[in-house]
Specification:
Blueprint (H helix, E strand, L loop, with lengths): L1 H31 L1 E2 L2 E2 L4 H29 L2 E3 L1 H26 L10 H13 L4 H13 L7 E2 L2
Antiparallel strand pairs: 1-2, 3-4
Helix pairs in contact: 1-2, 1-3, 1-4, 2-3, 3-4, 3-5
Keywords: FAD, Flavoprotein
Family: Belongs to the acyl-CoA dehydrogenase family.
Pfam family, one: Acyl-CoA_dh_1
Length: about 160
């Protein structure tokens, strides 16, 4: 089962990269897209979506880095931490992709921009290595004491 933690670390890392790509594409597009004589970056709704992406990415990054650090320290079992990093990063990737689609509007499904592909890939990340609903159950079971397994050091 220790390989599961590695797989979830990989998924969390991929989700971070995808969310970051959504943010970067959205920032560039928002600065370039002119509506009613001004860049859409000047609209508060667009700014709010950019903010949500940025904060979500940073929070997911900390969870993912913590899991990577635990693995580097020789912690063999970190199921709760792996579930948290994978679930949260995948959810951030999905929300970032949806927010990017809102910013891009109809262009989000155009082959001219990668946003539609990002949204499809983000959904896959919520499913692989144990879907996010399963992760929520596992995390809750650890918090409630139903699961007692703690992170263990390699011997």
């Amino acid at each position: 089962m220790a390989a599961v933690e590695n797989g979830r670390l990989v998924v969390a890392s991929r989700a971070l990269g995808l969310a970051q790509a959504c943010l970067e594409e959205s920032v560039n597009y928002a600065k370039d897209r002119i509506v009613l004589g001004q860049a859409i970056a000047n609209y508060q709704l667009v700014q709010s979506k950019i903010t949500d992406m940025s904060v979500g990415i940073e929070a997911a990054r900390f969870l993912t880095y913590r899991l990577a650090w635990l693995r580097d320290q020789g912690v063999e079992r970190a199921r709760k931490e792996a579930g948290m990093a994978k679930m949260y990063a995948a959810d951030v990737a999905m929300k970032s992709a949806i927010d990017a689609m809102q910013i891009f509007g109809a262009y989000s499904v155009s082959d001219e921009y990668p946003i539609g592909r990002y949204a499809r890939n983000a959904k896959v990340l919520q499913i692989v290595e144990g879907n996010n609903d399963l992760q929520r159950v596992l995390i809750a079971e650890y918090e409630l004491g139903i699961r007692k397994e703690k992170a263990k050091q390699k011997v």
